[in-house]
Structures are given as C-alpha cells and as structure tokens.
Amino acid sequence: MNIGDVSRQSGLPAKTIRYYEEIGLITPQRSANGYRVFREQDLHKLAFIGRARALGFGIEDCRGLMKLYEDTDRSSAEVKQIAEEHLTEIDRKIVELTGMRQTLTRLVHACAGDDRPDCPILADLSAQQAEG
Amino acid sequence: MNIGDVSRQSGLPAKTIRYYEEIGLITPQRSANGYRVFREQDLHKLAFIGRARALGFGIEDCRGLMKLYEDTDRSSAEVKQIAEEHLTEIDRKIVELTGMRQTLTRLVHACAGDDRPDCPILADLSAQQAEG
DNA sequence: CTTGACCTTACAGTTACTGGAGCCCTTATC
DNA sequence: GATAAGGGCTCCAGTAACTGTAAGGTCAAG
Fold first, then answer.
1. Residue B32 falls inside a structural domain
2. A106 touches chain B (CB under 8 A)
3. Could you give phi then psi for residue B124, rounded to 5 degrees?
4. Chain B within 8 Å of A40 (Cβ-Cβ)?
C-alpha cells in the first residue's frame, strides 16, 4: 500500500504520515523504487495515533501510549496517569478560554460596532478607565 | 527606565519585551551604552499588548488593535470585527476541548488504574472493539 | 580590582506539522 | 520514442510566540 492510499484510508495527510515516520512513530518498509510500503500494522498504528491526537494527546504522549499498548506487561495505572494529566491540562485550557470568552463577550456586547470611534473594547485594553 | 524595571512593572519577561521590539510592536529608545530606555508610551503599549494577549488575541491582532487605538478616525466596527472573529475562534476551541474532555473523562473513569494490563483507554485508542 | 546584578546580541529549540522546489517512477496516449 | 498526468521522493524553509543558552559589555559597591 502506497502513502496516497494510506492517506485516504486514515484521513491523515501524506505529509503528516511522512513526518510520523521521520520522528519514529512508524517504520514502513520500502519497495525497490524507494516508495514507502505500508502494512496492516502500520495502518493500525496510524489509526491509533490519529485517535490519540484527536483526543488532544501530544506526540510524546502518543509515543508513550503506543509503547504501553505494545507492552503486555503494562499496568493500566501507567496509562491512566498519562490520560489524567492530559485531562487536567484540558481542564486548565477550558478554564482559561472560558474566562477569555466571558470578558470578550461582555466587551463585544458593549461595543456599538458602528462608524464612530468610541469603543469599549479599546478602552478596556488601554485601561485608561477604572475597573468595572 | 531599563528593561528589568519594565519587566517587573508589566509582568512580561524581559525576553518577551525584546521580542516585541524585534517584531516592531514597540520601539524603545537607546541610551549611550546601548541599553533600551523605556518611556511612558512604551509602558502603556506593553500593558495594552499584555491585556490583549491575556484575552488570547494573536500578535497580529494586537498590532491591528494598537493601530486602531492610535487612529482616532477609526470606526468601532473595525475593532468589533476583530474581537468577534477572535470570539468565534475561542468558542470553536472550547467546543473542541469540551468534546475531548467528555471522551477522556469517560475513559479515565472506566480505567481501573491498577497493576493489571487491562485498559479501556488503550482499547478505545486501538478501536479493536465495537463502538460504545 | 573583583564580584554580582544587570544589560547586549545572536543562534538554536520548542510543537506538530505545512508548503514548496526540484526531481524520479509509472502508465497511458500519440 | 516523446510526452503528459498523477503518483512518489528528499530537503529546506516557514508557522506562533516565545524561551533557553552562550558569550560578552556595563555599572555600582566594597
């Protein structure tokens, strides 16, 4: 199977698949003409990585999770720890973004959005006025 | 005022302030010994940028917002548009992260986290089983 | 005169790709 | 045999917004 087919089947861009090989996440074989040849295990790994990435895991987490997946002597505690740390990070980001959204929403609603220069958004950013 | 004082006063790392100069957001003067000399307007700009960044605006948005702030002929509509687009992006990210959190939370709860290898998290990532 | 805190520049590294240039392989068509 | 289309290949540069590090200049105190 060539990289184009794998790309269509996995939904990952060919460039990304080459990148994953470069950083050692997969090691497809090569045919005589130098083309990458992907086997079932490569497809499976790519699907695994794709799903982990979709859950927001970083590349190094993906590497760790794959290693654990392949290690039948693993403890589920190791896996859970990676997931919990990631979950904590996600929660942190949600809190951060929610705070931004709250302030921004208030400012956007306060702004007339017309052709006059008066703007509560700029006023807030320049913070010339007292706290509200 | 030297960069160290500005850093303490603005809460921005000195490195970041130098970076902001490099990309043209601020243009502090220089004293004879080559040190950067910051004036009131520089401090004000840095505070503006700091608050915009805290709301998640990208650097180019900050540049645009500062330009509008300094342009007394601006329309508030221009400012509002930048803010609304950013707000949309924030909402998109929150939705994405919330989806991740939901799935991850379910998986983490399903995982025993003990010394046995059985792990619903890995099972889900490898997707050998049917959808649940 | 040295120590320590401060400042300077320049360069590399971070994350996870993405884009582009320049070139090779294969197959079909003229 | 030439050529064009549609793959594939490598290598290099760029993205966002800094951050780290090295090597060195400046300044006040003791």
1. yes
2. no
3. -70, -45
4. no
My answer on whether B48 and B18 are in the same domain is: yes
DSSP β-bridge partners for residue B37: B29
Contacts of A22 (CB under 8 A, 6+ apart): none
Pinpoint the alpha helices (H) of chain A: 3-10, 14-22, 40-54, 59-70, 76-110, 120-126
Is residue B120 within 8 Å of residue B132, measured between CB atoms? no
**B26 and B54 together in one domain:** yes
Distances (CA, A) of A125 to A40, A111, A128, B66, B81: 54, 13, 8, 9, 15
Domain housing B114: 84-132
* Position A33 in a domain: yes
| Cα B25 from Cα A27, distance rounded (Å) | 45
- Domain of B60: which CATH number? 1.10.1660.10
Q: Given pLDDT bands bounded at 50, 70 and 90, which one contains residue B132?
A: very low
Q: Which two tokens stand for residue A123?
A: 């006023």
When divided into structural domains, chain A yields a total of 2
Tell me: the pLDDT tens digits for B44-81? 999 999 999 999 999 999 999 999 999 999 999 999 99
Residue in A closest to B57 by C-alpha: A100
Q: Which of A79, A93, A111 sits opposite B121 (nearest CB)?
A: A79
pLDDT tens by residue, A14-39: 999 999 999 999 999 999 999 999 99
